[in-house]
From TrEMBL:
Organism: Kaistia soli DSM 19436
Membrane topology: Multi-pass membrane protein
Domain ABC transmembrane type-1 stretches: 71-260
Name used for this protein in its record: Raffinose/stachyose/melibiose transport system permease protein
Cross-referenced InterPro entries: MetI-like, MetI-like_sf
Amino acid sequence: MSPQRRYLSGLLAILVSTVVFVIPFAFILLTALKDKKESALRSFSWPASFHLWDNLVQVIQARDYMLLTAFLNSTILTVVSVTLMVVFGAMVGFVLQRRPSIWTSIASFFVLVGLIMPPAVVPTIWVLQSLGLFKTLHGMILIEVAYGLSFSILLFRAFVATIPRELDEAATIDGAGPLQLFFRIILPLLKPVVVTVIVVQSVAIFNDFTNPLYYLPGKQNVTVQLTLYNFQSMFDTSYNLLFMNVLLITIPPLIVFLFFNRQIVAGMTAGAVKG
């Protein structure tokens, strides 16, 4: 590619990124700085007066500090779910790659099915109710793990294929058992894909709206995305508070992506490059 084409391609990418990402974020920020009357106009304009602190206090204090409860619930849900996905995804990916058999073929089939088939909401609610896990954080954690585990397993399996089998044989000769082999030898080598799974799944779970809406109803179980209902109603909407809420729940995933962007790309492509 010639330098001129490369320059034009880079310029086009910057323009598209600005339109798709920067302009909507700027609109959210400007609306969050306005008062209720001015924000109701929904215009892309500079606020006549700044109400950042007032809007921030109102959002945090709304419905007995529901946003703080939502951040706590979302943090617990994200940390526990991602931890389980990393551990089980790595273990399953290692077994599927290292020990091929008819059972691993069947398991691989179900992994692909879990990745392709859409979730069945009503039967899942019925199962959760039967187990006494409906409207509980424990049940929601199991749901998030079940929905994200297939993708994690595929990433781990692709990366495990790049690790020489000689390491397994050497560790076995030295007397390492299966668990010691995995946790002491294999898992430390999976660091790039572990970071990728942590970041991608954390952002996905933290931003999840539909699953908590279906499986985790109730005031005490609210997550950050469900707090958007606080400032919306059929007859009146406080757009300044709504967009301030959107701004607050957008900042954590944005920071994660800014700091771990390179690690995400490295983990997604490591298996393909080394393979």
